[in-house]
Each structure stands twice: as C-alpha cells, then as structure tokens.
Amino acid sequence: MNIKYYVEANYQEVSKICAKLILDVLKEKPNGLYCFAGGDTPVGTLNIIAEAAINKEIDLSQAKFIELDEWVGIDPKNEGSCISYLKRNLFNRVPIDLKQLHTFDPLADDLNEECKKADKFIEENGGVTLSLLGVGVNGHLGFNEPGSSFEDKAHIVNLDESTQSVGKKYFSDEKVDRTKGITLGIGQLLQSGTMIVQASGAKKKSAIQQFLSGTITKECPVTSLWLHKDPVLVVDKEVVN
User: Fold this and answer.
1) Distance CA 89, CA 86 (A)
2) Is 238 a catalytic residue?
3) What is the C-alpha separation between 46 and 111, in angstroms, rounded?
4) Whole-number Å distance between alpha carbons of 42 and 11
5) Catalytic residue (one of 89, 102, 114, 140)
6) Among 62, 69, 66, residue whose Cα is nearest residue 127
C-alpha cells in the first residue's frame, strides 16, 4: 500500500498542506460530500478553506458536509461542541445553506436514529468524497476508540478516560459529562474517496509511530488508514522526531 506522507516544519505548514489537498478535491468535485473533524487539530486547515471561499477562490455552494463526531448529551451550542468548532472556523464564515450540512443531535431521545440519519445522508450522497481526520493520543479517529470495528457505520461510543481528559480543554465547565460520543464509523471513513489524517505535536507521537510501524490493529484505530486505497498522512516534525 502506497501512502502520501508529508512531514512539515510545524502546525501552520501542516495546515497549509491539508488545506491545499482539500481545495484541490473541492475544485475537482464541487458537488461532493466532505467530512471534517472538529476540535483543535483542523482549525488552521478549516480557516484556510474559509479564507479561500471568502476570497472566491473556491465555491462551496454545491458541496455537502457531514459532522464527523459529537459529544453526547452536550448542547451543540456549547462552545466546546464539535459543531461549534466547525461553525466558528468554517461554516459561519462562508455563505452556505444549512441544508448542505448534516449534524448529529447529541440531545436526541433516540441516538440510534441519529446514527441512521447520518448513514442515510452518506448513502444518499454517494459516500464521503473526502474526510479530514485528527488522531487522538490513544490513536482514535473521530470517536472510534481503541477496539472499534473497522467495519462500523455511525454508532454510539463509551469514551476512553484519555479522551474524556483531553476533552476538558474544550469546555469552560470541566464538569460537563464527556463519557459518551456519537461518531461516523471507520467503515464509512475507509470508503472515503480521499482520507487525510492530520497530526501535530509530541502528544501524538506514540499513535503515529504505531501507525508507521505498519501493524494494523483495532487497538490503535489510526492504523486502519493502511486499509484505505489512497491514504494521506500529514504531520509535523514533532510527531516523528
């Protein structure tokens, strides 16, 4: 399996590479379905895409978007929610119709129905054209924690303690319940036309080193990237040194 592997000087350069890759696909497939991770990792990338749209270098009016994951039980309007990050850095900055964007309702009474809605949205749009993913310190992709099936569709997850701990930084109230998540499954991500994993900083080193060893294991979900037909990994020097 060949992988497109980029090692850049710093987070800013990683973001530039990821944004260029995404913008190239958006230009080629303006009607595609795009899945972007929330949280800190993709902020730089998303802001570059937003600037390109604001400057009319790219047209997002025909594209569709789907949220990768969300914290269960936390109001989407909370500043720490995944969709809040996506809106602040991209969707609220560009003129798109909300009909173009599919999100999870983490407060829904029937979360399994939320999973089915996400699955249906993906199917109706012919699959995910491109997914931009961060990687957790434990190797997770989205909220697909260690031990997750590589064949899953959207599902509910009991989050690892490490994920809950890292998640504190997103919320002004550290006592919010971060024990469960809802996420697209690795099976869906592996079917993306393009699958990009972005990672920066020494904290991600262990997970990326495990990926680079070439061993594919459910105990480190990022290693599933090896199963993709055309995988892309973009990291900074801190991750590999």
Assistant:
1) 5
2) no
3) 28
4) 10
5) 140
6) 66
4-180+200-240 placed in CATH 3.40.50.1360: yes
Q: Could you confirm whether 138 is annotated as catalytic?
A: yes
Residue type for 8, please? E
From 70, 89, 102, 138, active-site residue: 138
User: Nearest to residue 53, comparing CAs of 81, 71, 27?
Assistant: 27
The reply to whether 125 belongs to the active site is no
Whether 57 sits among the annotated catalytic residues: the reply is: no
Of the residues 69, 70, 114, 160, only one is catalytic, namely 69
pLDDT tens across the length of the chain (241 residues): 689 999 999 999 999 999 999 999 999 999 999 999 998 899 999 999 999 999 999 999 999 999 999 999 999 998 888 999 999 999 999 988 988 999 999 999 999 999 999 999 999 999 999 999 999 999 999 999 999 999 999 999 999 887 877 777 787 777 777 889 999 999 999 999 999 999 999 999 999 999 999 999 999 999 999 999 989 999 999 998 8
Out of 145, 155, 160, 228, the active site residue is 145
Kindly list the domain boundaries of the chain, sorted by start residue. 4-180+200-240
